[in-house]
Amino acid sequence: MGPTISVADKPHHLQLPSEEEEEVLRKRNEVLERELGKSLEREERMKRELQRTWERLRVAEEAEERLCSQLGELEAEAVDHARAYRARVLSLMDQLTAAQKLLQNASVSLPIPQ
């Protein structure tokens, strides 16, 4: 015949804790609940801060896009001004050359600056 198990014997891990152990567990539970509350509060603050940071990033990216667009427009305008300036300089050079030819043809000599 095999070993017998008595129903009256409870395994150690199934015994109810003593009042002292209950009090220790209750206090530990209170501490853990407070820590959890603080942790959840920190998490909420961090979520709000992250949301504000994302919003600032979005605003900064939009501003960057506007600035890039404005810079592109200014660069195009600067190129147009440079082309117009170059065309004006070439036109003045052509006029000067024509005036010099007219003077040479009229046998008038220009003084050479020294």
TrEMBL record:
Descriptive protein name: Response to low sulfur 2
GO biological process terms, semicolon-separated: cellular oxidant detoxification
Highest taxon, organism lineage: Eukaryota
Keywords noted in UniProt: Coiled coil
Taxonomic lineage from the root: Eukaryota, Viridiplantae, Streptophyta, Embryophyta, Tracheophyta
One Pfam family it belongs to: LSU
Coiled coil: 29-77
PANTHER family: PROTEIN RESPONSE TO LOW SULFUR 1
Organism: Actinidia rufa
Disordered as annotated region, ranges: 1-22
